[in-house]
Amino acid sequence: MAQFPSALVQEGWRGRTLIRWRGNLTSIFRQVAVPTRQRCHLVTRWRHVSSACGFLLAVSFFGTARVRALDTAGSKRNKLVGWARKKHGHHARRDRQLGFACRAEAVRSTSKLQASDRPRWIAITGFVVPTYALVATSMMLTAIDKAFIGRVSSLQLASLGPSTAVFDCTSYLLTFLNTATLAFLASNADAAERGKIRSHALFFTVGSGMIQGLLLFIGAFPAVRCLGASGDLVQHSAVYLRLRSMGAPVDRIASVSTQFWLAEKNSVIPMLATIVAAGFNIVGDFVLCPSYGVVGAAVATVIASAVSAVFLIVCLEHGSLWPSPFQWPSPSDLAPFVRFAGPVFFALLLKVILFALMCAGATGLGIMPAAAHQILVSVFFICGIAFGQPLSWAAQSFLPRSTGQERRRIAKALIAVSSVFVMLSGVLAGLMGCYCLHWFSADSAVLAHAQGAQQTVTIFVMLYVAFLTMEGFAIALHRLKACLAVSAVLAASGGLTILLLRLSGLLSLTSLWASQATLLAVACIALGLIVLRR
Fold first, then answer.
1. Is 390 helix (H, G, I), strand (E, B) or coil?
2. Using one digit for the tens of pLDDT, what is the confidence trace for 280-293?
3. For the segment 227-248, what is each residue's pLDDT rounded down to a tens digit?
4. How far apart are CA 303 and CA 211, in angstroms?
5. SS3 at position 189
6. Angle at 170 (CA atoms; ends 266, 384), nearest 5 degrees
């Protein structure tokens, strides 16, 4: 609200009362007709009127006082006085209303200012914490299967290694569409355009899910053999993979619907969806796993994914975020997704290849190390990806629309929050390694192998959280080539290291995770220097 340094003067002039306000740029004159005989020569001066609200209140006060003075006149002037009262009363009410409106606007402006001055780390933490619960619960779907299967048979637990690696890695590979969807929605404020983006994202993700399911169902046996499954492991692993592939399209719907909510900076509803899915999965595993083994675990997981997808769709419809009517994409609409998500796709592909090589290396060590590796992978998913992915999404949600000083403040807040979450991920991984490994298996030999590599897994988890945070910065700042280059070097060096360890006879679970942690530390430093440069 502009300030009005001025003097308010009432003076008599030629039978009329003038209220004159002199400011730096403007002069306002209001005149009130009164009889010549009752001309008032009172001059009142107000100095240092600090705002328009004070000016309007002053005008209202004078007008009311003047009308009351005229009310004492004789009956001959009653008609004129009544007209003056009506006129001045109207102006007084109007000025009071304007004054109240000015005060209300000032309060709203102050509230907005206080909200913008609120520390950025509070908003980021409020986004990350529910998102962690979302990702952790999602990661627990496979971990729950492993926990129930580990109580039934160590052989079937080991067989989950190749099958879950194939399904989870291909699903993770398809999240490049999720990344593009979140980036486009976060950087676009037009409602119609956002609805179009949601329609196209659903079409692309459901189509990719159908292709994924078809390829995995057809190539289940060759895929698990490529990851080291042999003998009795092949049958159990392929059956689990085929059943999970049937629910791939539904799983993709739930995944992209989550991005719709994250683009609105709402991570609570996706968290609730995954909690509901985890509840259904636990009940299904408890009922089916003792009798049907890996078949029951796969069926329970597919049902849980379907329930999560339905829950998210219903919430999107109630929130007017579900695209209606659905807009079918043209071939030209695929170009922006491909142009942006192409480097992200190859970066994810390289990470998937690296994790597949780690799984193959652990499976080649035998049944007990392979089963222990699956337990450690569950710890990594719950503590590493579940902490790192929300930080990556936070960078992609908060950075795109910010510029200049505001972007630097958000970046500093993100770094501070990520530092805390890196430490928390290490603490949680250490606690799970000390107290929770027996949840996944009752076999003492399997637990011994897992406990031997637990410390290196903890270090790997912390470094991976930092790496995902830097990757989120790179995606938000559109430095995708740097992200792709670092991922390529990491995957190539990681695969070469595993091969050299195997040829030299030094490969074990501890050396496997330790070698990858060393390479990941170098990748974190390199990506951080590239992304955070001015």
1. helix
2. 988 998 999 888 88
3. 777 788 888 889 999 999 998 9
4. 20
5. coil
6. 55
Query: What sign results for the dihedral spanned by CA atoms 208, 214, 215, 220?
Result: positive
Q: Which single residue is written with the structure tokens 């796709």?
A: 345
Separation between Cα atoms, residue 441 and residue 150, nearest integer Å = 5
Dist CA 352 CA 443 (whole Å): 29
Query: Please, which residues have CB within 8 angstroms of residue 529's CB and are 6 or more apart in sequence?
Result: none
Sign of CA dihedral 62, 67, 68, 73: positive
Residue at 532: amino acid letter: L
pTM value surpassing 0.70: no
Strands 27-33 and 45-47: unpaired
List the structure tokens of 186: 């976060």
DSSP state for residue 437 in the 8-state scheme: G
Contact in structure between 131 and 385 (CB atoms under 8 Å):
no
| Residue whose token pair is 């609730």 | 272
Token readout for 531 is 């992304």
Give residues with Cβ within 8 angstroms of 525, minimum separation 6.
none
Closest CA to 140 of 309, 434, 383: 383
Residue 29: strand pairing partners: 20
Gap between the Cα atoms of 521 and 460, Å rounded: 9
